[in-house]
């Protein structure tokens, strides 16, 4: 496996031979702002692209959490004006002082919009001005591009929060000389979130009202940021091959399947990756004992330690099942809570994460009723996630939908076999009865049958150990993903930007 600091590929160039900079535009980027997998995915992609020899930069909002992580910021140039909806507001561009690890990260400052307690909202509710906040960020980021890099670039916008960037580039900024050398890619990490706002939002975006039509920004009477980005982008990428197929169907396109179909070959699916040096039981400093596919004794120690930390009896032969992530409908919590057979089985189940209050309360009540079999911790930490991977025998991912998923990749690296629904990236990264267990129908009965199939297999330890070794040997490296993205970028810069 190539190391993160070892260049492995020539830099990206356009047909004239000019080097092309990849500029990632994102609402989240680890470690500065993180609510889910987006922050880690963009960080992984950008970092490994730089390691492969590409010129890379990242642009994100200057949230309050950024100052917590990087208190020493330096301005890049003077403040500049961002004309939005008839009002020009001031923005400032910052970057971390000194040389930091990974690609350079730039931050757009607007105190009223981004210096808040939350990223998207507070107390379970979105901020009422999110349309203007993220429109401002997208336009300000575009205006800041000449300060970030000179020459041709690929502006890679991630999810709905940044999807207006291609729209601004091809409309209000089309006369800027540098925009001619700017190509665009939009990544769809979670198509369930598209940036829907009332039609009055059009007057806040600084865009021609003529764009509010069924082919561009209008969606069932609302403004749809993601739809606008797809209408104006050169190419689009989603985070797994199966997800690219699902997006083109009425059931999997979340109301935008016609847009995804219209993209044709300009929509591709590329799996996210994981840092296989960070997620490696052979060298993981967070876990109780290190182990490998050849020498697994340490995993038993990790299991006992996890049982102790969650207050469960230390039972070596009792299967220990884990689940981590946001406790929301998408993650299949309704299937788990509806599976009474599983919850009453001779197995232990541990949950890590927070989310919707109704799910948190339901899991806490289950743990109170069966403290020797079920445990819950709502306070997520990176260290505990590593310990969960190392200590569990199986991992639950019965997702309603899962564009890519990273947890199933990490779990397999640690020999914790996933039980997952055959959707999106789960279908692309788990092989049924080889590295995990898959099911199709989204109902508690099918999920329960699959879980009991896994429990039965656990009772056949020689076969189980063979499956563990198969899972631990899988390659989920970012290096593979970076190569696929590079091919997309090469095709993008070889074409004339869309008008």
What labels would you give this structure?
499 residues, 18 helices, six-stranded parallel beta sheet, 2 domains, ten-stranded mixed beta sheet, globular, 21 strands, Rossmann fold, alpha/beta
SSE topology:
Elements: E1 21-25, H1 37-51, E2 55-61, H2 64-69, E3 73-75, E4 80-84, E5 87-96, E6 105-109, H3 111-114, E7 121-122, E8 125-126, H4 130-148, E9 153-158, H5 164-170, E10 182-188, E11 196-197, E12 218-219, E13 222-224, H6 225-232, E14 235-238, H7 241-246, H8 257-263, E15 267-269, H9 297-309, E16 320-324, H10 333-337, H11 340-343, E17 348-352, H12 357-369, E18 374-377, H13 382-391, E19 394-397, H14 407-413, E20 417-421, H15 424-429, E21 437-439, H16 444-458, H17 461-472, H18 478-493
Parallel strand pairs: 1-2, 1-9, 2-6, 9-10, 10-14, 14-15, 16-17, 16-19, 17-18, 19-20, 20-21
Antiparallel strand pairs: 3-5, 4-5, 5-6, 7-8, 11-13, 12-13
Descriptive overview:
This protein is of the alpha/beta class and 499 residues long. The protein has two domains: 21-273 and 479-493, Rossmann fold (3-Layer(aba) Sandwich), CATH 3.40.50; 297-475, Glycogen Phosphorylase B (Rossmann fold, 3-Layer(aba) Sandwich). The protein is built from 18 helices and 21 strands. It has helices at 37-51, 64-69, 111-114, 130-148, 164-170, 225-232, 241-246, 257-263, 297-309, 333-337, 340-343, 357-369, 382-391, 407-413, 424-429, 444-458, 461-472, 478-493; strands spanning 21-25, 55-61, 73-75, 80-84, 87-96, 105-109, 121-122, 125-126, 153-158, 182-188, 196-197, 218-219, 222-224, 235-238, 267-269, 320-324, 348-352, 374-377, 394-397, 417-421, 437-439. The strands form four sheets. Strands 1, 2, 3, 4, 5, 6, 9, 10, 14 and 15 form a ten-stranded mixed sheet that branches. The chain is globular and about 70 Å long. It starts with 20 loop residues before the first strand and ends in a 6-residue tail after the last helix.
């Amino acid at each position: 496996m190539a190391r993160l600091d070892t260049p492995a590929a020539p830099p990206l160039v356009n047909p004239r031979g000019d080097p092309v900079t990849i500029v990632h535009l994102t609402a989240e980027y680890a470690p500065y702002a993180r609510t889910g997998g987006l922050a880690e995915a963009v960080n992984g992609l950008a970092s490994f692209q730089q390691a492969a020899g590409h010129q890379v930069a990242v642009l994100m909002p200057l949230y309050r959490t950024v100052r917590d992580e990087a208190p020493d910021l330096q301005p890049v140039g003077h403040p500049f004006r961002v004309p939005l909806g008839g009002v020009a507001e001031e923005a400032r561009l910052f970057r971390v002082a000194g040389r930091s690890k990974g690609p350079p990260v730039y931050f757009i400052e607007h105190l009223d919009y981004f210096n808040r307690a939350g990223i998207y909202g507070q107390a379970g509710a979105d901020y009422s001005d999110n349309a203007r906040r993220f429109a401002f960020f997208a336009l300000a980021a575009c205006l800041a591009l000449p300060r970030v890099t000179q020459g041709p670039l690929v502006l890679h916008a991630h999810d709905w929060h940044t999807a207006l960037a291609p729209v601004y580039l091809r409309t209000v900024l089309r006369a800027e000389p540098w925009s001619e050398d700017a190509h665009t890619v939009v990544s769809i990490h979670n198509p369930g979130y598209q940036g829907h706002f009332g039609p009055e939002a059009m007057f806040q975006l600084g865009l021609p009202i003529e764009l509010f039509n069924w082919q561009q920004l209008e969606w069932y009477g609302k403004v749809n940021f993601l739809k606008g980005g797809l209408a104006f982008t050169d190419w689009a990428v989603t985070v797994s091959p199966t997800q690219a197929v699902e997006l083109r169907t009425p059931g999997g396109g979340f109301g935008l399947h016609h847009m995804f179909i219209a993209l044709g070959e300009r929509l591709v699916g590329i799996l996210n990756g994981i840092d296989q040096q960070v997620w490696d039981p052979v060298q993981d400093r967070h876990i109780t004992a290190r182990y490998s596919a050849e020498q697994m004794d340490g995993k038993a120690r990790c299991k006992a330690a996890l049982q102790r930390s969650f207050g469960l009896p230390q039972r070596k032969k009792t299967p220990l099942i884990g689940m981590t992530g946001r406790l929301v409908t998408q993650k299949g919590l309704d299937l788990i809570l509806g599976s009474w057979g599983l919850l009453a089985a001779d197995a232990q189940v541990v949950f890590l994460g927070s989310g919707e209050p109704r799910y948190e309360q339901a899991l806490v009540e289950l743990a109170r009723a069966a403290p020797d079999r079920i445990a819950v911790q709502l306070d997520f930490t990176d260290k505990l996630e590593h310990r969960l991977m190392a200590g569990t025998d199986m991992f639950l991912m019965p997702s309603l939908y899962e564009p890519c998923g990273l947890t199933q990749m990490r779990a397999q690296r640690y020999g914790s076999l996933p039980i997952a629904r055959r959707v999106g990236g789960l279908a692309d990264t788990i092989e049924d009865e080889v590295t995990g267990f898959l099911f199709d129908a989204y109902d508690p009965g099918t999920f329960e049958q699959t879980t009991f199939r896994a429990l039965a297999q656990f009772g056949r330890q020689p076969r189980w150990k063979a499956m563990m070794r198969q899972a631990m040997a899988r390659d989920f490296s970012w290096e593979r993903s970076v190569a696929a993205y590079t091919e997309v970028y090469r095709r993008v810069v070889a074409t004339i930007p869309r008008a």
